[in-house]
Amino acid sequence: MIREATVNLTRKLYRPLNRAGLRGVRKPAGGPRRMTRQPARYPVLDNARFMLISLVVTGHLLEQLADQGPLAAALYRWIYLFHMPAFVLISGAVSKSTLTRRRAFALATSLLLPYVIFQTLYPAWDAWLFHTGDWSAGYLTPYWLLWYLPSLACWRLLLPLFARSKFALPLAVVIALSAGLAPWIGYPLSLSRTLVFFPLFLLGYRLGGQRLQQLGDSRKRKGVALAILIAAAIAAWFLRDLDPEWLYASAGYADLQVAAWPGGGIRLALLAASASCALALLALVPRGATGLGCRSLTAYLMHGFLVRALVGAGVFAWMALALPEPAELLACLVAGALIAGLLSTRIAGSLAAPLTGPFGWMRSLARLTPFAIRRRMEEFKRLY
User: Fold this and answer.
1) pLDDT digits over 39-70, tens only?
2) Among the four 87, 108, 241, 309, which has the fewest Cβ within 10 Å?
3) pTM for the complete prediction?
């Protein structure tokens, strides 16, 4: 009897504590919507990256053709209307509006350090292939395709200043149109492209990856997107004699031989067309995960060596003599997709890691070092 009374008393005393513990476990700190997390990657953006890097390689192959016919000229201008603007828009969609020490360090190691490396290697590659090398530009004028690295670093540095402003996008458009007025804003430092394409970067940030993932969920949107791209292709055919410098966005109005007002109107129309075509492409891209496009930066940085090697080997000169124009275009399209696919593989990413991501590559090597050195590297990592 005494034992049973003691057990019942103990249960009565500890019952409130048990209930309190159950309440703490059963009720989460936030509601279901607050507990959900955004996905680390959006499949539509990765799929779009692969399609765009294929178009980048194709565009650079078309650029090397000795005599561009009307079909090649129209295809070239159609590709350049939206392929890099779409890359800029995607970069804005995955960017953060806050700049921490870790993100600033990542900008320096993942963008600026590879820029310095490839800005050294590409002129050396040209010097070896063609026995000539132009070293006069130094490191302030990006070589050919390397302009995207310093521009992307600048956009991510500018984003915290523009992210909280309600009029950030109109202000960026005004700056982009005004950039063509200054004669000293051009290809050096990639300043012209940085300012002209910045509205597309802000537009991507405003939309975000989740909205872009859901952009092509309805058939009506896909139909509109297809109509936009077809209309752009038709316009590219009629504007095949347009100076491609307009699409590069690397020259001012004076260099393009137009006055300020017509030049500003043309640039505004091109920005609107580029944004529309970029969004249309994202609406048509497959939504499911394919694993492609995760290593698009490696393909972007490395494909120039293959293109220049093909030029040095005389492949494009042979194509101009031996193939008709439709066959040349088909060869460039197929080669662009093959080169992009080859350089987007995991093996290519691992082989190119010392160049495209030297700091991450050295950090992976540090894991193989003795424990004391590895611990020092981890402590250094925590500082950022």
Assistant:
1) 557 889 999 999 999 999 999 999 998 667 89
2) 241
3) 0.84
